[in-house]
Amino acid sequence: MNSRTVVTLVSAAATRTAYRALCGRPPGDAATWERKNHAGRTVELYGGLAACAGTVLAVATAPGLPARTRAAAGLAVAVAGGCGAYDDQCGSAGERGWRAHLGALRRGEVTSGAVKLFGIGAAGLAAGALIKERPVDRVLAGVVIAGAAHVVNLVDVKPGRAAKGVIAAGAPGLLRRGPAGALAAAPVAAAAAVLADDVGERTMLGDAGAHALGAAIGVAVAAGNGRGGLVAHAAVLVALAAVGDKVSYSEALWNAPWVRMVDRWGRLA
Questions:
Q1: In angstroms, rounded to a whole number, what is the distance separating the alpha carbons of residues 255 and 60?
Q2: Cα gap 163→48, rounded to integer Å
Q3: So where are the chain's domains?
Q4: DSSP structural state of residue 63
Q5: Are 240 and 234 in contact (CB under 8 A)?
Q6: What stretches of the chain adopt beta strand conformation (E)?
Q7: Helix (H, G, I), strand (E, B), or coil: what is residue 235?
Q8: What is the spatial distance between Cα 13 and Cα 16, in angstroms, rounded to a whole number?
């Protein structure tokens, strides 16, 4: 059994186990983990917490990963998930977009989004320093990891959209041998494990799950690419983040026929 298969099985099983455990015994007050989704239905955020836990466990136990790469993946995913969970609990619906958070900082206000922005950014750079040797490559890897976490969170505005995005973004990585393939398998399997509950509007990834899975995809990309690939991925992610405040809440991006069909698959409405 190769490393990708092991990681896939561990990630999916751990995610489902964690999800069932969280549903049975919620951490703290269950009401604090409930949200109204786009259709006004009440859903819980356990799917995101479970996906984060499953991904961390899978990369921590993945056979054959170099120690530094394993540490980088665990650090990036855990911090991204933790910062996202903090924002899930303490964030305000009115605090959206990195411009708003930076503006609040200039006024002396530290928002939960600012904690997310700088926490995930620092974790991405630290992970990049573990994966790459040269300073430029380390910075580029950090941008890719933090950027991927941010972009996945931007599309998490309708049931299943972010999980499907993670699966689509990570699927090409499954074809790669070595660490990159194993690293891609962890978030893909975790997202697939909660997809049915996500599109069925029983759970949502929330900031914890979206940021954690995005960071995991970013680590896989960083581990599998040299400088040219890192530059290309970083440029795309920065561009998406720059316009994300507008397009993430608009349906125009999702109206292409094939995109619309995949996006709506399994959703109640």
A1: 39
A2: 10
A3: 3-264
A4: T
A5: no
A6: 34-36, 42-44
A7: helix
A8: 5
DSSP-derived secondary structure letter, 203: B
Q: Find residue 36's DSSP bridge partners.
A: 42
Residue pair 52/208 in contact (Cβ under 8 Å)? The answer is yes
Q: Do residues 263 and 161 make contact, with C-beta atoms less than 8 angstroms apart?
A: yes
Tokens 């969170």 found at: 153
Which run of H or E residues covers position 142?
Answer: helix 135-154
pTM of the shown model? 0.89
| Matching residue, tokens 């316009």 | 243
Count CB-CB contacts under 10 A for residue 23: 16
* pLDDT tens digits along 112-157: 677 888 899 999 999 999 999 999 999 999 999 999 999 999 888 8
CA distance 132 to 169: 22
Q: What is the chain's alpha carbon radius of gyration, rounded to the nearest angstrom? A: 17
End-to-end, the C-alpha distance of the chain in Å comes to: 40
d(CA 170, CA 214): 10
Residues 89, 91, 97: CA angle, nearest 5 degrees: 140
pLDDT in tens, 241-258: 877 666 554 566 666 676
C-alpha closest to that of 210 among 224, 190, 226, 229: 190
Distance of CA 172 to the CA centre of its chain: 17
